[in-house]
Amino acid sequence: MAGKITAKMVKELRDKTGVGMMDAKKALVAKDGNLEQAITFLKEKGFAASAKKADRIAAEGLVAVVSSDDNKVATIAEVNCETDFVGKNDNFKNFVLDVANFVNTNNIDSVETLMAQKKEDLTFEEIQSSLVATIGEKITTRRFATLKSDYVHTYLHMTGRVAALVAFKAEDASIVENDKFKALAKNICMHIASMKPSKLSYKELDATFVEEETKGIVEKTKKDNEERKRLGKHLHNVPRFISKLQLTDEVLKTIEAEIKQELLDSGKPEKILGKILPGKMERFIADNTLLDQELCLLDQFYVMDDKKSVGTIIEEFSKTIGSKIEVAEFVRYEVGDGLEKRVENFAEEVASQMK
Question: What distance in Å separates the CA atoms of residue 214 and residue 150, rounded to the nearest whole number?
Answer without folding.
Answer: 37
